[in-house]
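Much of our argument rests on the idea that a fold can be written as discrete symbols. The record that follows shows the chain in one-letter code together with its fold in token form.
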Amino acid sequence: MSGPAPVALDATCAEDCLHPDAVARARAAQPPATCVEEASALLKAVADPTRLRLLTALSTGELCVHDLALVAGISESATSHQLRLLRDHRLVTAHRDGRTVFYRLADQHVTLLLTNAIEHARERPSLR
């Protein structure tokens, strides 16, 4: 028994499509290209193990550069460099108290992103 006959969706579809409604829904759900690029860059920033350690540390509360360096096991200079990238992607915010700069997660979106990523990773039987 054969399935439904293929239907060409439009001029951009090089192949005939077996499920035009599903493809139409998926296309309609696509965010604008600039949004996709921004989200991809954000996920790349989070994907670095050192930056993920910094973000996870900040999920416990505000920390200064020195304390973050201790948690991540890297120099303060390297920590500042990573934090600058995280600030550029609006993942963390900073404020100065005298000579000390304190960092925190930018908002609940970042907290949720971290929580979901860590929980998803912990679902692997070898990581429990």
